[in-house]
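A quick aside before the break. I want you to see a complete sequence-to-structure record at least once, exactly as it would be stored in a machine-readable document. Don't worry about memorizing anything.
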Amino acid sequence: MFERRRRKRFVERNEVLIRTAADKVQGAGIAAHTFDLSTGGARVVTSKSYPVGTVIRIRLDLAGTAQFVNLEGEVKWNRPRPDGDLHEIGVEFLRLTSQAVLTLIRHLYGRNDGIPTTVA
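That is the input. The structure line, written in tokens, reads:
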């Protein structure tokens, strides 16, 4: 099977708060968590299904640290989980700032693998 991802994925649970443009009017957002994470996107487990193409804002609380990153992303795929009322969505991060990328690199690569000299 051909792997289309350009970035290494890390299986890691991070707490997430998802907001859409509608959430500004309808409430504070949806609590969720990541299943895996990279510097370019994440697989997010959520109680709400988001249509492909939806642009969402994510507050990502990085596990084991007091750090968080605010990101914008586009839903690339979604599917229901077989274990109940939860959904998985694939999110590609959009318009990443250099600070957000650096925070993600330090978090993901700085623990066990060491920070790489190049990141795709």
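Two observations worth writing down. The CA atoms of residues 58 and 71 lie 5 Å apart. The mean pLDDT is 85. We'll return to this after the break.
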